[in-house]
Structure formats: C-alpha cells, structure tokens
Amino acid sequence: MRTCLPVVRSACRVLVLALLVVPVLSPVRGIAAELLFFRVIQDSALANRQPERYEKLTQQVASGQRDLYIEKSPYLRIDRVSLKAVVVEKDPVIRDSRDAELYLALRKVRPEPAERSHVVTFFVERNAAMKLRDLGNQSSDQFVDLRVDDKRLVTAKVVGQFGAGGVYSVPVGDHDTDRLRTVLAPLKDIVIWK
User: Fold this and answer.
1) Per-residue pLDDT reduced to its tens digit, 131-165
2) Residue 162 lies in a domain
C-alpha cells in the first residue's frame, strides 16, 4: 500500500492530503446513503483510556507503520439529498491553470506513480458546503476518515482549509474501479464516471 501527497482542490483553497486506503467491513444500515466524516487521532494513550470510543487502524507509510485511532461515531454527516453529484476520474484532474501549477509543484516532491490514482469530486448544496468549510477550519493538520455509509473511502490528513464553494475533490489513491464502484454504490444514481 502506498502513501502519497496529492493535491486537493476546493472552490477557494487547496489542500494536501496524506492518504490511506483500507477496506472496512461493517453491518449494512437501513438508512438513505450519506457521506460520513469521522475524527481521527494518533494519541494511543488517549485511545487506550477510551477504547469503546475508537477503532484502531494501522497505516503503512514509507518509514514503517503508523497507528491511527478513528472515532466510532461520525462527527459530520452529509445526507444524500445534499449531494448534487459525485464525479470519479483518474488523476491528475486539471481544470484550470492553478490546478496545473499545483500539479507541477507536487510532481517536484513526489515522482509520478506508475499507475494513476482516482480522484472523487463531490458537488454539494450550500448548507453542506458550509458544514464542510467548518470541518476544514476545525480539522486543519488532522486526519479525517471519510466513508459512504459503512464503507471507507479514504483516511486523509487535512492541510489547509476548505472553502464554501460546494465542490470538493479528494484523491483516493490507487483504488481499482470495482472497489470504488462498491464503495460508491449507495450513491450510484448521482455518480459520473470519467
């Protein structure tokens, strides 16, 4: 499993995320599809004092392993009604000159991977955009676990802040297309594959 530092573009600010892609098997819930955000900590002492609150996730990184502790309850939910569309494409996703400049700057510190990874872009309505902006302001330099219902999409470190523009792109690493289809299946009626 590889770790990389891709560029993420929101409508106003740019984020760099350290990625971890790990499948999770959880019981299926009988509710409408939603995008879930979970807080993540690295403090094992805190997690061990409250084991009922966290699940442990071990991440493979270049220097070895890193343990992350993910809260079992989401702190932000974006319901299906608030999601306008989801676009899945191979990176690099370059929509304007700023994206191109960021991609070229990133390539200086990280060589291009042999295989291109996927980028998932969420288009959300205004209230959800405001919630995501607040999440970015509160979670800068912290890990966040992102799931669609019970399936983990990515665990990422937020660097910077989200804007309130309603468009959020998240690199999800080298998921294969079938795995992404499974994770995004609850949203299939609004997913666009490019």
Assistant:
1) 988 888 888 888 899 999 989 999 887 766 676 67
2) yes
